[in-house]
Amino acid sequence: MLPVEEASAEDAEVSGSPEGSKKNLRVVSFGGGAAEIAAFAAYLHLVNAAKTPEDNGEPLTGTIDLVDSAPWGPVVEALHGSLTTLPALSKYASAVAKATNAALVDPDLLSSAFTRDNALTMSRDQLAGRLETANGDGTPLLVTLLFTLNELYTTGGIGKTTAFLMNLTATVPEGSLLLVLDSPGSYSEAAVGKESKKYPMHWLMDHCLLKPEQRESAQSTGGRYWEKIDSQDSVWFRLSESVTYPIPLENMRYQLHLYRAIRS
Known about the structure:
Pfam families: Methyltransf_34
Distance between the termini: 28 Å
Structural class: alpha/beta
Oligomer: single chain
Region (Disordered): 1-20
Strand order of the largest sheet: 3-2-1-4-5-9-8
C-alpha cells in the first residue's frame, strides 16, 4: 500500500480532511471479499499504531465498499465482527495477555459493506450510484481491482471489460486513485480477435485508460481519463522468516499499477 499512501498524501481529500480533523480513507473494491477487508483493517491498524503523540491528529478511519458476484456477504460480516472485537482468550491467559488484549482495529474506525453484483453488467448509472454511495460527498476515493482485472478480461471478454473501465473513468470523482494488482507476466494475458492474439493485461488497460484518442474526446468519458503514477511489472512479496503460520504459505510475485483520475 505504500504507493497508494504516497499518492494519497498529494491528494489529501482521498484519505482525509483538513489537518487536525478526522481523516477517512474511502475504498471501493471490485472483486472484493474476505482478503480485502482483512487487508484494509490491517492497514488501518498499522497506520494508527505508527502515530505518535506529536502527530496531534485524529486516527485514520476507513470505509470499504466490497462488490463481487460471489456471495461474500456473510463472510465479510463475520470477518468485520472478528476484526473489531476483542479476541477470545484462554481462561489460563496471563494477566499481561488480558491487559493488552485488543481488537485489530477499533469498531469506530472501520466501516464495511458488501454488495453482490457483477461489475461487467452494471450500467454507467449503477456504477455512478455505487461510487456515490461509497464516498457520499463527491470527494476522491480509492478504487481497487486486486487479482480481478485479468479474470474479467478472461471470463467477460475485452468488450465488456473495456466498457466497465470506461464507465468507471466517466463516473469516478476527479483525483481518485485506481489500484490494480494481478499475477505477473504470461499469467495475465488476454486473447483478442479471431486469431486469438494475446496481449498483456497492463497493455490493454493502458490502451483503454491512457490512449490519446480518449483525452481528445469528451463524449465517452466526460472529459476524464487517467494518469499512471506508479507501475511495476514484477514485485516480490516475501513472507517474514520470523513468523510461522498453521498452513503452508509461499512467497509470490505480482504486478502493480496505480492511476489517478484527472479531467482534460
